Amino acid sequence: MARSGWNGDESVSRRAFLCGVGATVPAVAGCVARGEDSGLSGEVLVDGSNTLLPHAAAVAEEFQWRNNRVQIPVYGSGTGAGFQRFCAGETHVQNASREILDDEAAQCNVSEVEYVAFETALDGLAVFVHPDNDWCDCLTVEELDEIWGSGSEVETWADVRDDWPDEEIDLYGRDTGSGTFDYFTEAITGDIGAVRSDYSASADTNVIVRGVRGNPFALGFGGAGYYYENEDGLSLVGVDDGDGCVEPTLETIESGEYTPLTRPMFAYVRVGEFEREEFRAFVRFFFEEVDDRGYEMGREAGIVEEGEELTWTQWAARRVGYYAIPPETVEEERARLEEVIEDR
Question: What are phi and psi of 222, to 5 degrees?
Fold first, then answer.
């Protein structure tokens, strides 16, 4: 596969996929008007990570096409806000761009919400600069920590390397309410949230992209998909984690080579809901191999190689610009799912 990411002309961007809805409006309800009646019916409420919203919506859309009497509204309240609803027993599936925090797990425990988490997709966090920046094409993890860490004394590019311009670095990144912020700060500094506060923070990665694109001395981070949707206005910065400089591409993210900024993303599901047949079918659908219709759609979209076998969660990840979990992870998650169902 020659392309660096799946966000080029042949794939479907996250924004384009979502039927033009916002985070507080379900992304799938109303999109599926036809499909097949499998005999299953009911409702599965999905909320959580805004980042994972298009992935969950893609899986739900294909499941509902084959089970058109099952309603699956998918919301994107955010990982933190979603966990509040999930642990209060208000939703059935919680998408998360990070693992559950201790206080959130305690809330689930108090509410007697038993859950199990499955890895469903991969994302790479990209570091990028303005296209006119011709001096910085790679940063070590230590340099990123020096730039972003709490109490950082780095003010100019020359503070990072002596031969770089003595110009102030304008930093752009996600705000503290996002799982992307949590993952980036922990991966780079060692602790969630342990970063300087004097940067331009936004809940919208598109704002970050516009900020970096408009300033030749800026540095920002965000999901790799956003970089590939804006390649003309940004330059990618590779990350050296001790084994040389690596850029986030389909190959380096799906192989795990791009460290430490390749992150797994999860679906937390309520164990008690496995009593319902339609719920079991929906969760199993993530780890089932795509059918002929899905395969042909994937081939037409350029996200499936000739003869390649993907499950729906892998297919959906690539369709909306994320990255597929490896086959061995699929097998592990599928086996765990069946164990949970069997124990009910």
Answer: 180, 180
